[in-house]
Amino acid sequence: MNALAAHRIVFGGSLVTLALGFAGCVPQEKYDAAVTAARSYEQQLGSTRDELSTSRANEDRLRSQISQARADLESMQGLSDGSKVDLEKLRDAYDALSKQVAGMDAGGPLPENINILLASLAEQYPDMLQFDAKTGMLRFLSDVTFDSGSARVKDSAREVLRRFAAILNNPELAAFETVVTGHTDNVRIGKPETLKNHPTNTHLSAHRAISVRDLLVGDGVAANRVEVAGWGEYRPIVENGPRGAAQNRRVEVFIRPMTYDTTTGSWGGNTGGTAPATAPRATPEKDATAPAAAPVITRPAPEKDPN
Hints:
By secondary structure, the chain is an alpha+beta fold. It folds into 2 domains: 3-104; 112-267, CATH 3.30.1330.60. It is built from 7 helices and 7 strands. The protein has helices spanning 3-23, 28-106, 112-124, 142-145, 155-168, 192-197, 201-218, and strands spanning 129-132, 137-141, 176-183, 226-230, 250-257, 260-261, 266-267. Helix 1 (3-23) runs antiparallel to helix 2 (28-106). It is elongated and about 135 Å long. The protein starts with a helix and ends in a 40-residue tail after the last strand.
């Protein structure tokens, strides 16, 4: 028999004794009321004890949950600290690679004499050329360098490219290479005759870069010193309007330190200080169609424009 049952027996016996005591000196109805009240108190006591037991069980469960939550929090905090360290390392590595790539794309300061020659060339053809001495970049504006929707260099621009090739062959640029990159606006090609040769803006930009490269090589620049790329509409320098933007239709030529040793055939730069071998002089093609296409990324644009 548990303590609660024993307590109830004792309490019940007390009620009986109390009731018998009252029986002899109080009216029957008062006696009955007293018994009823005592039983009600007994029921309330049992209910209160049950609620207390339930509350204690709930309290124990909550304490257990709080303890587990604290352990989880500490574990997550440890993982978070480790992740911060990993993220910082990844961010540092990304920043270093970004700077390295930016340096490869943008070239850098050129010998002072070369800067003077390129600046002078750009000044003589302000409607066709722009020169940035900080990045070693010469920009040819496509609208005056190429016929509409064509990769053929205009005759008026070929003389400029011949003079540019002479600068590239300067001994002071023996340890430098050239990157020719084509760009367009974001207006898709619509003319059927243009689409036959240039299915997308990426093709057109790459083909124009190749045409410039071919003319430079034809004027004596070593083929292993010239790289080409076509970005299409994906690297604009100004916001495109409904019909694109003339500034975005361009060919940029970057002159940067050599990344390939032409004397040993290994990567890492020409450190010997000698001029790389020049390619045999060739006659520029009168109507060059680019022989290879760049990787294509297509994206619809608002209107048709031959670029």
